[in-house]
Design goal:
The two termini are 27 Å apart. It is built from 8 helices and 4 strands, in the order βαβαββαααααα. A 4-stranded mixed beta sheet has the order 2-1-3-4, with helices on one face. The chain folds into 2 domains: 98 residues, Glutaredoxin; 107 residues, Up-down Bundle (Glutathione S-transferase Yfyf (Class Pi), Chain A, domain 2), CATH 1.20.1050.10. It is α+β, with helices and mostly antiparallel strands.
Length: 220
């Protein structure tokens, strides 16, 4: 399996890119893969003709599983879990709960977490986004409050087993890791730490930093 990833990034994107999600899932599932590293230039990946052949939106991550092309990080992660039979229950209702909480991260939390991140990165250079930051943060906190209470009685987002939904949720949480929001939710803070201490994630993060050629700890 081939996975298209970044091999160069501007510093403000270190540790935030979505190839981390796919890499983490591949490591957890034990699926063999090779990475195809691409450079992120001033115009992003817009001028990359190699990626355009497999992904019309020229986005990462993209997988090529022996000629089967799949894009969009959520779809990629669910596919890898289903293909390996890991990180997802075998019964229909159990799988539906994994999809439910994965989609919650992607459709209810990330659309508001990303504007908070971009506002923090751009600051006064984008006054419109800065003005909307409290509104976006408030919506994020509404969802995190519910999940924080949920994590009082269970160790992971779906239940007591680590699933692909946890990878999606933790990677969305990483978009908020340098601001004031997450410390308000102590159960989520402990949960995120548990997940990021998993050996598969630590391997991926080390390899990610090595591939980018950045100092150890820069993407934490």
């Amino acid at each position: 399996m081939k996975l298209y990833v970044f091999k160069s990034l501007p510093p403000f994107l270190w540790g935030y890119t979505r190839d981390l999600r796919a890499l983490w899932t591949l490591e957890e599932c034990g699926l063999p893969y090779e990475t195809i590293g691409l450079d992120c230039g001033p115009q992003g990946l817009a001028d990359n003709t190699e990626l355009a052949r497999v992904n019309p939106f020229k986005q990462i991550p993209t997988i090529d599983d022996d000629g089967y092309i799949l894009t969009e990080s959520g779809a990629v992660l669910f596919y890898l879990a289903e293909k390996s039979g890991k990180l997802i229950p075998r019964d229909l209702q159990g799988r539906a709960q994994v999809y439910r909480w994965g989609i919650t991260s992607l459709s209810n939390i990330e659309p508001f977490a990303l504007p908070v991140l971009f506002s923090d990165l751009q600051g006064d250079a984008n006054p419109h986004l800065k003005a909307l930051r409290p509104w976006n943060a408030g919506i994020v906190e509404k969802f995190l409050d519910v999940i924080d209470k949920r994590l009082q009685t269970q160790s992971h987002i779906v239940g007591d087993e680590f699933t692909v939904a946890d990878i999606l949720f933790v990677c969305v949480l990483r978009e908020l890791r340098k601001n004031e929001i997450l410390p308000k939710f102590p159960n989520i803070v402990k949960y995120r730490a548990r997940c990021e201490e998993r050996p598969a994630f630590l391997r991926v993060l080390d390899a990610y930093e090595d591939r980018l050629g950045i100092p150890r700890g820069s993407a934490r």
